[in-house]
Amino acid sequence: MSDVSRCQKQEVLAEQWVSEILRSVQEYRAHAQEELRAMFGTRYSIDEVALMFTSPSWALRFIGSAVRVPGITMFNAAHDVVTTRPIVSTYSAHYWFLTTPDEEDPWRLECMYAHVGSPLHDSYRGFMADRDVIAVHASFKCADEEAYGVAVKTLRDNGYEAAQLCDSTYGRFSYWMPEEEGATSGLYLKPRVNLRDMDVEIGDDDE
């Protein structure tokens, strides 16, 4: 097999890999959107789904293939330092943000690599031995701290339990899952509020 044929084969496999992941993510988002609508009506929308990678190189490999898809571009990257509760810890994370082709209902894809130190993300590493990426959360943005507090209370009142509460260099966020399994997308719902750049809109520099 020539080098050109090998490259073409690798490109096809990469495109299939990206397509399968995007299809699964779209399904996850649709289910998470239903959960959110049941609690908040149309006040919020899932505007981000996160993919956790086992290494930065796998994240960049995925991004390199994903940006070949029409409508997908990488528009931002960031590094964050996060402290956690109720298990007190600190970890750092790298994020790469991608647009998605859905123009009628815009949302973004967060590709992340979390360094060791996050109890929640560390728990995922145990069953990622046979995979390089996994979907972790579906997120929605709150306008301010008051709105974030109301969102957190609403989640709790609807039987959701906080798996991890986080404060970071840009703001505050948390991960929620129903206490009883059943009506769940399989992803954590993640309300977030940007306290650093209150005037920044989604799709700009908001992490």
Comma- or semicolon-separated keywords:
alpha+beta; globular; 2,3-Dihydroxybiphenyl 1,2-Dioxygenase, domain 1; 33% helix; 207 residues
Shape: globular
Number of domains: 1
Question: What oligomerization state is this entry in?
Answer: single chain
The CATH topology annotation reads as 2,3-Dihydroxybiphenyl 1,2-Dioxygenase, domain 1
Give an overview of the whole structure:
With about 210 residues, the protein is an alpha+beta fold. The protein has a single domain, classed as 2,3-Dihydroxybiphenyl 1,2-Dioxygenase, domain 1. It is built from four helices and eight strands. Strands 1-4-3-2-6-7-8-5 form an eight-stranded mixed beta barrel, surrounded by four helices. β2 and β3 form a beta hairpin.
Please give the structural blueprint:
Elements: H1 3-40, E1 48-53, H2 56-66, E2 74-85, E3 89-99, E4 108-114, H3 119-125, E5 133-142, H4 145-157, E6 160-168, E7 171-178, E8 188-194
Parallel strand pairs: 1-4, 5-8
Antiparallel strand pairs: 1-5, 2-3, 2-6, 3-4, 6-7, 7-8
Could you give a quick summary of the protein structure above?
This protein has 207 residues and is of the alpha+beta class. It is 33% helix and 34% strand. The chain has helices spanning 3-40, 56-66, 119-125, 145-157, and strands spanning 48-53, 74-85, 89-99, 108-114, 133-142, 160-168, 171-178, 188-194.
